[in-house]
Specification:
CATH class of the largest domain: Alpha Beta
Number of domains: 2
Order of helices and strands: EHEHEHEEHEEEHEHHEHHHH
Oligomer: single chain
CATH architecture of the largest domain: Alpha-Beta Complex
Number of helices: 11
Strand order of the largest sheet: 3-2-1-4-9-6-10-5
Strand content: 15-25%
Radius of gyration: 19 Å
CATH topology of the largest domain: Spore Coat Polysaccharide Biosynthesis Protein SpsA, Chain A
Structural class: alpha/beta
Number of strands: 10
Distance between the termini: 44 Å
Length: 309
């Protein structure tokens, strides 16, 4: 049985589309938990409308504790019969066969703690920004091989820790179907990592085993200025916090310190290339932000990671 969790904070504009995409799945044996994280708009009215229509929906209301705690709360509210979990954001929506596709990938790779597909960027009015699979965020994956970063040519291979450590190749948990036991073993979403808590969850899952990957669209990601990916706040202190955790020689990342160090090196090189692009395009704001990231990463590399060999 599947459990879908949707944290909600002032989501009135797109919430109906999100809920409808869950209810219309080709797989129907699921439970949907809606967590109202202190909304002050008409989100609650929309939620009550759907509760009257479908008994599989459970509603939880709390103060505004932010998204990571809302997701964790939603997981806690799922029934004991749930085997697989998917976390969907309030303004995103699933493809109709998303859960079916993701579950199929886990059946093909039973050792994987989670499976994921691709997300399509859509505008505020529903226009597609991502035109094809090959243009999708995360379609081109890279791995670290012999201390070098190389592209993965086979688009049906699994995604290992090193694939995910350079940059957040999975842009949102709405792309993933996670085994319940695996999610529990990670400790869930880390509130201190927000808004990059999504990235860290994928990293923690990949320390268990490689993630099953399917190069198909499974969801649609709304682009607007509240999103971490589109507003440029997905980096900086939040990702530094996570990379410091990856350098610890105990805990979940203990066997991945060296890989994390090499990944950080290539993250710096990646940011340098983006910085050059901003300069060529005379994007001063973008260049300054990226330069700040580069400086922070270099300092981290030569301090926290200095003794890792």
């Amino acid at each position: 049985m599947y459990g879908i969790v949707a944290p909600i904070w002032n989501g009135e504009r797109y919430l109906e589309k999100c809920i409808e995409s869950v209810l219309s799945q080709t797989v129907q044996n699921f439970e949907l938990v809606l967590v109202n994280d202190g909304s002050t708009d008409s989100s609650e009215e929309i939620i009550y409308k759907f509760i009257k229509l479908d008994k599989r929906i459970k509603y939880v209301k709390q103060d505004n504790l932010k998204v990571a705690k809302a997701r964790n709360r939603g997981f806690q509210e799922l029934s004991k019969y749930i085997n697989y979990i998917l976390f969907i954001d309030q303004d995103d929506y699933l493809e109709q066969n998303a859960i079916e596709i993701l579950h199929g990938a886990l059946l093909q790779h039973p050792e994987s703690p989670a499976s994921y597909g691709l997300g399509r960027f859509v505008g505020m009015n529903g226009e597609y920004y991502t035109k094809s699979i090959s243009d999708a965020y995360g379609y081109n994956r890279y791995k670290i091989e012999n201390n070098k970063r190389v592209i993965i040519r086979d688009h049906y291979t699994l995604s290992s820790f090193d694939v995910l450590a350079v940059w957040p190749a999975i842009m949102t948990p709405g792309q993933m179907l996670i085994k319940k036991e695996a999610f529990i073993s990670t400790g869930g979403f880390d509130p201190y990592a927000e808004p990059a808590d999504e990235w860290e969850l994928t990293l923690k899952l990949s320390t268990i085993s490689d993630l099953a990957y399917i190069p198909l669209f499974v969801m649609n990601k709304r682009c607007h200025d509240r999103h971490a990916l589109t507003s440029g706040i997905y980096k900086n202190n939040n990702m530094i916090y996570i990379r410091k955790k990856m350098a610890q020689n105990n805990g979940i990342y203990a066997n991945f310190n060296h890989t994390a160090k090499v990944a950080l090196k290539y993250a710096i090189l990646f940011n340098c290339n983006v910085f050059k692009t901003h300069i060529r395009q005379k994007n001063i704001k973008g260049a300054r932000s990226r330069l700040k990231n580069i400086i922070q990463d270099i300092i981290l590399y030569h301090t926290t990671y200095n003794n890792i060999h």
